[in-house]
Each structure stands twice: as structure tokens, then as C-alpha cells.
UniProtKB/TrEMBL annotation:
It is a multi-pass membrane protein. Belongs to the binding-protein-dependent transport system permease family. Keywords: Cell membrane, Membrane, Transmembrane, Transmembrane helix, Transport. The chain crosses the membrane at residues 42-61, 99-123, 135-155, 161-180, 220-244, 256-275. This is Sulfonate ABC transporter. Coiled coil: none annotated. Residues 95-275 form the ABC transmembrane type-1 domain. GO terms for biological process: alkanesulfonate transmembrane transport. Its main location: membrane. It comes from Methylopila capsulata. It comes from the Bacteria. SUPFAM superfamilies: MetI-like (SSF161098). Probably part of an ABC transporter complex. Probably responsible for the translocation of the substrate across the membrane.
């Protein structure tokens, strides 16, 4: 290296500046290493840190008199109310009714959504015949459909299960189609080269390849199922968490209303956790999920 070289100043060779790409790669590598070092228990504790902080601040504001009890009761008051309802057995009864409605509606809606998604995913003709109608129905809000479902089914169990099923259909339908159509074309070419039959290709390549997208739809559908049930249980219900909240509203029992909201939130978090476990188990073969499965 000559002294005329611009990289030489005062007789000393200057080290080349690291490129932006190399710097970004090192930063990404350090981030991945930090994620790898994080223990599952530490991540679990971190996920609950924000809710716990909110509860502590909430309790402090209520005890300090900054929030009126009839507007928003303290968490300790909500816990006392929950203990009373558990002791009478009414809370478990209403919770069981809501869980049964949600599970039944989810099973029916999930089966319909998956069946329609598979049909449309494999056939452009079926897409032309079905998809536009499904998308139009998907755009109708639950509250707009509520009066019509009451006319059709009354205010009994059928109306509530129908609304839950209707909400579940669309996430699973859309994600099933996306999953099928995003399967790697090279895998399909490999199936043809290997001489696999159409049924074997679907069973061994297409459906497993679509499974990550389908399970994403399942996770979203679980949340929608509870949203639909909340709407359904606000009209004419004689049992369930929605009935418990509406009955408490008549007597200005904000503690009971807040309790039902917290129960919905916990059920939603629990449902998502179950879906995540199912996802890791079913996708243990997938490179993006293999580490989590271990």
C-alpha cells in the first residue's frame, strides 16, 4: 500500500470502515442471540408484566380516591365479588353456558370455513361461484345482522350459536385459501416428478404446507368467536357471561360488569395460549416452529 493511497494518512494505514450491511448483520445477530438466551419462564413473566402493572396502578388510583367506586371499582372489590359469585355457584354456571356456546359455534363455523376454503383454494370455478357472496356476507356487522337472526331463530341457543359460527367462518375460510395457494410451487413440481397421485399430493404436501396459515386463522377465529358471543348474549339470554353483565347493568353493579370483562379477557388469553401450543405441536416439523417445539 503506497503513501499515495487515500487510505494512508500520516504514514499509517486506516482500517476500512465497516459496511452498513455488515453492521446490520451484526446487530441482527446480537438480537437473535439475545432472543436465544431468553428463557421461556422469563418471557412468560415479561408477557404478564404489563397487565400486573396496570392492576397495581388501577388499585392505587381507586384507593387514593381518584376514581369513584361506582365508575370503576378497585380490583380488590372485583375479586371479592368473584368470590361471592363462586360461592353461590352462579359464576361457574354462567361461565359453563358461555363456554359451551362458544365451543359449539366454533366447531360448526370452523368446519364450514375449512370446507369452503379447501373448495375455493383448489378450484377457480368454485372461487367465482362462492367467494364474492362470502365476502359480501363478511362485510355485514354483527349488530346489523342481530335483528334478522332474532326473527329467524328467536332468542334461544340457536341464535347465539349461529352468530358465533358466522363469525368463525371467515377467518378460517380466508386463511385456508391463502395457505393452499401459497404452497411452494417447487414442492408441487417435485410431487409430479415423483409420480404422486392427486390425493397423496394434497394429503402429504398441500395441506401440511397450508397448515401454518390455517392455524393462524384458527387463532383469529377464537378471538372473533368470543366477540360474537358477547353480542349474542346481550339479547334475550337467560344465562351466560353476557347475561350476567346485562343483569348487573340493571342494578348498576359495575363490579360485576368489570368482572365479566376480565373473564372475557382471561378466556381470550387462555384460548390464544392453547392455540399457540397446538401450533407448536402440529408444526414441529416446520423450521420456523421447530425451535419453539423443542
Amino acid at each position: 500500500m503506497s503513501l499515495a493511497d487515500p487510505r494512508v494518512r500520516g504514514g499509517y494505514a486506516l482500517a476500512p470502515k465497516p459496511s452498513l450491511r455488515a453492521s446490520s448483520a451484526r446487530t441482527a445477530g446480537r438480537a437473535k442471540a439475545a432472543d436465544a438466551d431468553a428463557s421461556p419462564r422469563g418471557l412468560l413473566a415479561l408477557s404478564w408484566a404489563a397487565p400486573i402493572v396496570v392492576l397495581i396502578v388501577w388499585e392505587a388510583l381507586c384507593r387514593g380516591g381518584y376514581v369513584a367506586p361506582h365508575v370503576l371499582p378497585a380490583p380488590s372489590k372485583v375479586v371479592q365479588t368473584a368470590i361471592k359469585l363462586v360461592s353461590t355457584g352462579s359464576l361457574f354456571h354462567d361461565l359453563g353456558v358461555s363456554l359451551l356456546r362458544a365451543a359449539t359455534g366454533f366447531a360448526i363455523g370452523g368446519l364450514i370455513g375449512f370446507s369452503l376454503g379447501v373448495t375455493v383454494g383448489f378450484s377457480r370455478v368454485a372461487e367465482a361461484a362462492i367467494d364474492r357472496s362470502v365476502q359480501m356476507i363478511r362485510a355485514v356487522p354483527f349488530l346489523a345482522a342481530l335483528p334478522l337472526t332474532i326473527i329467524w331463530f328467536g332468542v334461544g341457543e340457536g341464535q347465539k350459536i349461529f352468530l358465533v359460527s358466522l363469525g368463525v367462518v371467515f377467518p378460517i375460510y380466508i386463511n385456508t385459501i391463502l395457505g393452499i395457494r401459497q404452497v411452494d410451487p417447487k414442492l408441487l413440481e417435485l410431487a409430479q416428478v415423483q409420480g404422486l397421485s392427486g390425493g397423496t399430493t394434497i394429503r402429504r404436501i398441500i395441506l401440511p404446507g397450508a397448515l401454518p396459515s390455517i392455524l393462524t386463522g384458527v387463532r383469529y377465529a377464537l378471538a372473533v368467536a368470543w366477540l360474537a358471543l358477547v353480542v349474542a348474549e346481550t339479547v334475550g339470554a337467560q344465562a351466560g357471561l353476557g347475561f350476567l353483565a346485562m343483569d348487573a347493568r340493571e342494578f348498576l353493579r359495575t363490579d360485576v360488569i368489570v368482572l365479566t370483562i376480565l373473564i372475557y379477557a382471561l378466556i381470550g388469553a387462555g384460548s390464544d395460549s392453547i392455540a399457540r401450543v397446538l401450533e407448536r405441536r402440529l408444526l414441529a416439523w416446520h423450521p420456523n416452529y421447530a425451535k419453539g417445539a423443542r
